[in-house]
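Hi R.,

As promised on Friday, here is the backbone we talked about, encoded as structure tokens. Could you run it through your design pipeline when you get a chance and send me back a sequence?
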């Protein structure tokens, strides 16, 4: 059931294909691009209009078309179209036919590796919407990709999971920690190329996401941080130190934070 607020914003424009060009102009005008911050509220409201079963075939085809806008560089207003389309796909996933669900996951995987950071964020947001509907979809997708995943894909995994609504179930938080440990083990073993932009993006993601997971599963989480605190790998130490400095941990688990910091200092 779509809320009246969502219907009043985008619902009517999506009922007839003849309105799509007008809708496109409207979204481009509300995108806030070029600029540092896209209009997240408009993108979310657009996605919410797809969170129900009665999506027309034409509306589905519209977001598939928009998801393929690859020639709009970062901060170009047209980048807002695939940014919105991916989130709409995530909202629609539970109602989509199996063939459509395959397309949605394929589009998310492609966006994980997009050179545009905003599109990578859209992939994570879309997957978060899917995970809120069925966490098992995320587990199956990530597990199937992990062995061959590149740095940007691994970053997408942890960015998706670092979403508190997904971590309310203890098993979900433990899964996020297990996946993170596998990624960190690969880095520690030298299986990840360091001096690349892709690794920098992955590292940045790890520097905040672990603290989100630890907050929701502190016993296992601090055990994980302790494991990687006793290393001479400066990259690993940077990841651990950054997470220990997050307020979500320092305010709630100060003694555990101090314990891990002592382990780091003793090395």
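Update: got your reply. Pasting your designed sequence below so it's all in one thread:
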């Amino acid at each position: 059931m779509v809320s009246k607020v969502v219907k009043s914003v985008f619902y009517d424009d999506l009922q007839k294909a003849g309105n799509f060009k007008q809708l496109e102009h409207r979204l481009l005008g509300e995108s806030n691009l070029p600029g540092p911050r896209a209009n997240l509220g408009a993108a979310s409201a657009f996605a919410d209009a797809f969170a129900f079963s009665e999506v027309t075939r034409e509306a589905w085809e519209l977001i598939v078309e928009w998801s393929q806008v690859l020639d709009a560089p970062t901060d170009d207003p047209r980048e807002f179209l695939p940014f919105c389309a991916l989130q709409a796909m995530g909202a629609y996933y539970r109602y989509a036919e199996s063939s459509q669900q395959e397309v949605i996951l394929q589009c998310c995987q492609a966006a994980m590796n997009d050179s545009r950071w905003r599109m990578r964020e859209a992939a994570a947001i879309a997957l978060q919407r899917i995970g809120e509907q069925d966490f098992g979809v995320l587990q199956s997708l990530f597990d199937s990709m992990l062995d061959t995943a590149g740095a940007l894909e691994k970053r997408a995994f942890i960015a998706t999971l670092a979403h508190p609504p997904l971590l309310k179930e203890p098993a979900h938080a433990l899964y996020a920690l297990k996946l993170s440990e596998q990624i960190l083990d690969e880095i520690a073993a030298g299986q990840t190329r360091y001096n690349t932009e892709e690794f920098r993006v992955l590292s940045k993601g790890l520097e905040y996401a672990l603290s989100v997971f630890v907050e929701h599963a502190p016993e296992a989480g601090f055990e994980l941080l302790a494991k990687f605190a006793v290393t001479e790998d400066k990259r690993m130490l940077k990841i651990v130190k950054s997470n220990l400095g997050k307020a979500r941990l320092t305010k709630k688990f100060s003694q555990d934070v101090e314990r891990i910091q002592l382990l780091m200092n003793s090395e």
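One thing I noticed while checking it: DSSP finds 15 helices and no strands in the chain.

Thanks again,
M.
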